[in-house]
User: What shape does this take?
Amino acid sequence: MERHERIAKAIAASGKKKGEIAKACGVANSAVTQWISGESKSLRPENLYALAAATGFRAEWLAIGAGLEHEEQEPGSPSEKDYALIPQYTAKGSAGSGYHNDHVELKGGLVFKRDWLKRMSLKETNLSVIYADGQSMEPTIAEGEVLLVDEADTEPKSGKVYALLRPNGEVSIKRLVQSFAGGWVISSDNLDKRAYPDEPISEDAIQQIGVIGRIVWRGGGM
Assistant: This one.
């Protein structure tokens, strides 16, 4: 079996659409089509491991056909049927004045129960995991905590916390609050407003700030 045939088998067995595979691997739909057809002769390591995570097949088997198709599963270990692997990136979202990510890499993923995602009305292909940096969102979000971002939820809602892409390219984690006087306030949860002042912003200006997605879960140390 050729590599493109193994890839086609893995994608078909996963039950996922090409678009879902492309998003999980961080590539265009056309790239997945080329992997399946054999038109593309190269497959970058990060794409290979992302494809393995998205389909549940072993990267070594996908690449060269060696070994088992799937990892032997220990009794009681998470199964793809019950758990979804959400891609985890090295990107940081600043809970401070803003964090500029010069280089972002896929670091693997975090596993979430599918029934929990369903209860939360979350779709795994719209989700990603990043890290918090800074103290402006304490006590809600502490520095270093892991954040689950719903990239499909980009319409600002008053009182919700979002990952924002600033015009200068920095990513910040802030709460958006609609002002009674009109417009919005980009707010930090930290009560030290000298260090972390609120930012009033007009209705028009908020459209200039890219909303990456809403923060729907956070996890960290106890």
Remarks:
- DSSP finds seven helices and ten strands in the chain.
- Helices lie at 3-14, 18-25, 29-37, 45-55, 59-64, 114-119, 203-206.
- The two ends are 49 Å apart (CA to CA).
